[in-house]
């Protein structure tokens, strides 16, 4: 079965790597053009998918808008694929791409649809304290993440798992599911199932303001937000008027009678901070302008004493 792949970001590149390893080779990889950056805006940074496709010697087409890309549209009309795999693309794909291929466009979404439709399903699931999530392969329709489901798989979320770690794991699962789904379609051995739209929930894009932590949060919320936003955008608080990124925390049973924001040291030397309910252990932090360090070293270098407030 001939296929094209449309993708841009890290999740897409991981899925692409997996399906290529499984010998599902796209005839064409479509991605966004390189971004300009650097001090003078002259350096160009290719997308993660572009980098991976080039490394794997795949045919790459770069497009800022596939829906108005004449060269791509002409290719679709003259020698289009049987299916298009659209993952983490950054563009809304419309007609004729949705209906021209025999099997339409398939998308891999890192949630158990119809739960967590939208831009940030991994982060939102962790922030909500969800114990389980999933990966869904479904057919694209005009409405976001609402198409009929081809195949899905659930997986547990570890209580210490970060957003980046979970995304990596879901991408691997997604690549496997995509490969299985394409083969099932080819063999005509599966039918798509409509989603129950009444059960849909939404994972809205993370706002920058949500990355600001407060000791007034519960320890559970503090911990879940920290791991959800690792590695991007990274959760932070302020200490002595400077930004302090919090990369890793752990919930602790150490019962502190102090006021909110007070710090104590546990038996391993890690700082434990009182939240509105419960306490968190600071495992890894990053002071403004410095590299990330473990909580023990940060506490020693900050000239703090037990009972001080992290304000």
UniProtKB/TrEMBL annotation:
Enzyme class, UniProt record, top EC level: transferase
InterPro entries listed in its UniProt record: Fmt (IPR005794), Formyl_trans_C (IPR005793), Formyl_transf_N (IPR002376), Formyl_transf_N_sf (IPR036477), Formyl_transferase-like_C_sf (IPR011034), Met-tRNA-FMT_C (IPR044135), Met-tRNA-FMT_N (IPR041711)
Reaction(s) the record says it catalyses: L-methionyl-tRNA(fMet) + (6R)-10-formyltetrahydrofolate = N-formyl-L-methionyl-tRNA(fMet) + (6S)-5,6,7,8-tetrahydrofolate + H(+)
Residues binding (6S)-5,6,7,8-tetrahydrofolate: 111-114
Boundaries of every Formyl transferase C-terminal domain copy: 205-302
UniProt keyword annotation of RNA-binding present: no
Residue stretches making up the Formyl transferase N-terminal domain: 28-174
GO molecular function: methionyl-tRNA formyltransferase activity
EC nos: 2.1.2.9
Keywords: Protein biosynthesis, Transferase
Highest rank taxon of the organism: Bacteria
UniProt keyword Transferase present: yes
NCBIfam families: fmt
Family: Belongs to the Fmt family.
Role noted for this protein: Attaches a formyl group to the free amino group of methionyl-tRNA(fMet). The formyl group appears to play a dual role in the initiator identity of N-formylmethionyl-tRNA by promoting its recognition by IF2 and preventing the misappropriation of this tRNA by the elongation apparatus.
Descriptive protein name: Methionyl-tRNA formyltransferase
Organism the protein comes from: Dethiosulfovibrio peptidovorans DSM 11002
Gene: fmt
